[in-house]
Amino acid sequence: MYVIEDELHSEHIGQFPTLELALAELRRLAALPWDQAPNQAPCTSWATCGRAYELIEYDSASESSRALRRIPALTVSSRGVVWAADMQSQFPSTRA
Prior knowledge:
Blueprint: E1 2-6, E2 11-16, H1 19-31, E3 50-58, E4 67-77, E5 80-83, H2 85-90
Antiparallel strand pairs: 1-2, 1-3, 3-4, 4-5
């Protein structure tokens, strides 16, 4: 199981059964305007803030569902969209 979370605001964005679906959602988020939902940050200083999306892989085979890895995915702000280097190297389809 994969979860997308906004690391800056500790906000759960979505849960996906496959990596492919999680990557598709990250690409969708990257294509949306930074100042519109769901990219608009939930804080009062949203205009100078942003989102720092992280991809978290969970061990769904065990009852504990512990996190196996956390990968910084992309940031979305008024400065634009920036894919994390790890995402670009591990998942070429995320290259900007």
